[in-house]
Amino acid sequence: MSKESDSYKKRLSEQGLWLSGTILTIAAITSACNAKNNDPISTTDTPPPTSTSEHISPTTQTEITPLKENGLEDLSGKILVRSFPDGFGQDINFDEQSDIPDFDLSVNLWLINPNGSEKILISERSSINAPVLWSPKGDMFAALIEGDSYFDFQNDQWNVFDLKGNVIATLGKGFATLIPEEDVSWSPTDNSLIYSQKFGGIFEYNINTQHTREFITTTGRTLDNSPAISPDGSKLIYVHHEFGSNYYVTLAKLDPNKLPHKGNEHNLGVINPELKVLSSGEFSGDVPFRFLWTRDGQKVIWAQETISNDNFDQAIYIADVNRELVTRIDLNWCTSWPSKIGDNIDLSKDGQTILFTCNDSLYATDLNGDITTILDSEDLKLFLKLPNYQDGFVEYPRWSPDGKHIIFYSFPDDIIIVKNDGSDIEKVPFTEALLNTGGVEWSPK
Fold first, then answer.
1. Spatial CA neighbour of 84 closest among 413, 363, 422, 444
2. Which parts of the chain have pLDDT scores under 70?
């Protein structure tokens, strides 16, 4: 997919003209199911790299017995993965007056071991649009569970589950309607969720005490979203949006004596000195970001596509929050990439290596922009035995808990695990229809 066409789809979606794209997506899914039944201070110019070698009770399902020789039996942690239900897309009806399809995009949410064993069905109504989020300790996870239909927003709710699939906390029915679907994250204390509320602000919800604390008060008709707290809990990074196109990556100190901070209104010249803008740019739509903090809380990483001089510009950004210095690694040599660039990066636990995907390949870079190829598209095609005309998609790369392996999703139905040097490619035994339902998430421990 070209950069221009991908960005055009984003712009249609963000301006509310999502229906035609959704219908096209459903058509593709139906076919597959039937067949299966910017202002950075400094910049790193990087050339293309060279290759270097409704909630239901959780139910344990009978699944393929993982092969002992597949090399996955000793991997630690748990994996969250979503799949479409059997027969999805085979009975789609359209209202003749409105052309609105009578369907929803809820999917199954599964908890499995990396070798495919101990498969537990967590919910049949997980949102396809919202992420599933592991807590910092890896003993809980949060997911948006939808109401009885795609448009039943009042009964959507964020649930927190334990590792047996039991609901241990919820933000309440209807509460999710106030929160953009991709705007929830965990606090480093493992007992709170951070969320943004449209035209309201940024808040912390303690799942034990059910107490809510406000961090940012949004002012005017602006938006503040994508919150992420530093590991020591002292800083908050988020994105401030104005006019639906201008964004400001903003840093706030979480001094309890100064909370909540009143948000900025740059267009009116209303600036809160407690809020530091690290980077700004232009993009069509209030696109959420995915921020990744280093463990020491000194740096934060994200990836974003922006518009510069009427050209699309893609890069990985690295912010030194103490020096308020932002560098970036240009990715303009990429000819194709996944639609959500921000979801297609991951940071190693030592904070030194960033995974990312483009050109249907898996790459790693250090913080200086030294890029190496972990797995290229040709090697993946050979492993998957794909025909020459079909590319091997690489999306949603995530590190294993020990950093020795990488997991990713390959369209349409494969979950792949590979060593961090690109060797020993293995397919996770999982027979459900994935069809780009949001990738996979490996627990941190």
1. 413
2. 1-71, 86-105, 149-153, 172-182, 284-287, 308-310, 338-339, 388-392, 435-438
Complete edge-to-edge strand list for the sheet that includes strand 325-330:
42-44, 325-330, 311-320, 299-308, 292-293
In this structure, the strands spanning 345-347 and 42-44 are: unpaired
Instruction: Name all domains of the chain by residue range, CATH numbers in brackets.
Output: 3-182+288-442 (2.120.10)
Residue spans of beta strands (DSSP E) within 353-413: 353-358, 361-366, 371-375, 395-399, 405-410
Instruction: Say if residues 363 and 371 touch (Cβ distance below 8 Å).
Output: yes
**Strands laid side by side in the 405-410 sheet:** 395-399, 405-410, 414-419, 426-427
**Around Cβ 103, how many Cβ atoms within 10 Å?**
17
Q: Which two tokens stand for residue 323?
A: 């020096």
- Residues, the chain, total? 445
Q: Which two tokens stand for residue 311?
A: 């050209």
What predicted TM-score, i.e. pTM, was given to this entire model? 0.81
